[in-house]
Fold:
Amino acid sequence: MPKHAYLSASASHRWLACPPSAKLCANIADQTSEYAQQGTDCHELCAYLVEKALGRAVTDPTENLTFYDAEMRNCAEEYRNYVLEQIETAKEFCKDPQVMIEQRLDFSRWVENGFGTGDCVIVADEVLQIIDYKHGLGVLVSAGDEEHGGNSQMMCYALGALEAFGDIYDINQIQMTIFQPRRDNVSTYTISKDVLLKWADEVLAPTAQLAYVGEGEFKSGDHCQFCKVKATCRKRAEYNLELAKYDFEMPTTLDDIEIASILAKVDEMISWGNDIKEYALQQAQSGVHFDGWKIVEGRSNRKFTDEAAVASKVKDAGYDPYEKKLLSITAMSTMLGKKKFEELLGGLIYKPPGKPTLVPESDKRPAMNTAKNDFMEEYDNE
Structure:
């Protein structure tokens, strides 16, 4: 077996669904991005603010944070406030709960070399709390629900915390929370210790054994989103090419059942197609030739070579080169702070209806009334 660990808690949703993908991804370097660095910076700031509030000796990291700004500060302060509230709640079960920030959590009892870092772990009698900060805007992250169960990353962290503190504290429940302020998302899922350990023994451990040696079945699905081999994976290609059987049929010839089947797969197919194109572009730029394709210069927009000089010349000609516009709601909230924003502008904000969007039944948003439904309601009331 390889000596390095690659079954991370953060990728557990993928390798639990598709065990052999872990070994395929193991030797591919991680790609950094500005978004990832923003998340790293904010995690540092969050840890600092919480530990400072707890009276611990810590160093302010802000001058070393690449993407530090007012929005990041607001997010980190909201996180700190939430953690402090949870500590006070924990004191209802335990006079002196332990609070660990950026705590290494070892769950290798179930996963070979399995460990991760918990943003905040609050250990008390009866309830163990795991809080994970997410800075991202793109994907709404859930701690779990009754239909799908718990978030596997959080459950792995919970197992690590139980290993470390389960013999010291009388823990019966684990409360797992995702704190995602930029999406106004605080998602909490509670699981009993017995159910968590049952999942670890019956699901996590045997699947991890398969994943560690590259065995098991490949499977395509939502978990492919951050997979390093998603562009070249044959199983994902087979899954998406199932739609090829509809290539020569006009939409009006499909029945409702066929359309529903396509709707369930079309977003993933578009995502797969974009991944293929991005991968092929990277390969072509490295010298790989794909028959029938070439690299060309894309379209671009004109730009000023010297904006200060442009402004000066326009002013001299008697014109105003600048436009004045109201800050966006997000920018205004960042400038004023959420409390002052609500105080000054809360009564001047409204949210218009969103554009109708077709989503799966599992989506948590309530269904809109369609024209047919409106007619039926009016007919029923006559």
About this structure: Strands lie at 98-106, 115-123, 126-133, 144-145, 149-150, 171-180, 185-192. The chain has a mean pLDDT of 87.
